[in-house]
Amino acid sequence: MAGNQEVTKVGDLPEVCLAHAIALTSPRDACRCAAVSPAFRAAADSDHVWRRFLLQGPAVTNKSTASKDAYLRLCDTGAVLVDGEGNAMRMWLDKASGAKCYMLSARALSLPWDDGEFRDVAQLVECTSLDIYGRLPVAELTPATCYAAYLVYGLADGHRGLSFPDQETTVALASGRVGAGASRHAVCLHPDEAEARKFRAVSRGTGAEETRPPRLREDGWSEMEMGQLRTPGDGGEQETAVAGEEEVVVSFEVLGWYSKRGLIVEGVEFRPVY
Q1: Global confidence as pTM
Q2: Which of 2, 254, 248 is nearest to 141 (CA)?
Q3: Domains of the chain, each with CATH number or no CATH
Q4: pLDDT, tens digit only, all 274 positions of the chain
Q5: How far apart are CA 270 and CA 91, in angstroms?
């Protein structure tokens, strides 16, 4: 009779079945599953689950020995990768989603000022025309994911010309520098209302858009959101081929031709947004 039949609960399933189901979720969900019961914890912590999360990331670890510990190491410390031109960039994983994050170092960016200092970071000594460009192949990023690009920078003592409200950023998918349809955003590296008022009479301006302010990070650097975009999804071979040829192109420009100095550039970060 139905009343005498044994009821099979989800926790009674073999560990391999639970692990396969959990591997179809996200790292955040896997950690939540581990708190359900001992059976779920064993499945959620299994190498099968975390190997799948790592397979979605870059080939910087031995997938045959992939584990939760290896995943967490990539989240916490990341890895340094070198492109075909010898430029280093740091890669790490977003702990919650497993999406790939990148930091293009200052040496990997186009910094067309003549008078500067270059060590691990780039410091602007003096220039009149200031623009910064960076490129990252779309294939390096996690598909079907919304990303934001951030200029990571600091200011040296005696900085000048970085408070005027005539600064713009763009982020776009393109095969060239910046696509014609790229949206532009008004930003300001070092908001200073007193200096801005003096400059309004001669500024070309950036339109009516409200100027984005920077954010001071816990590591002491400041970051400015340059813009957002969504990477192409898994839409079949044709979309994959197109995405493989595209790049994410970011730019920061100051429109006015006046003396500028004291900008210290660490790089540009690409991180997922929710």
Answers
A1: 0.79
A2: 248
A3: 2-75 (1.20.1280), 80-272 (2.60.120)
A4: 455 566 667 767 777 888 888 888 888 888 888 888 888 888 888 888 888 777 665 555 555 556 888 888 888 888 887 766 667 788 999 988 889 999 999 888 888 655 555 567 888 888 888 899 999 999 889 989 999 999 999 999 989 889 887 899 999 987 544 444 567 899 999 988 777 666 654 444 545 567 888 999 999 999 999 999 999 876 544 454 445 568 999 999 988 888 888 999 999 999 999 8
A5: 10
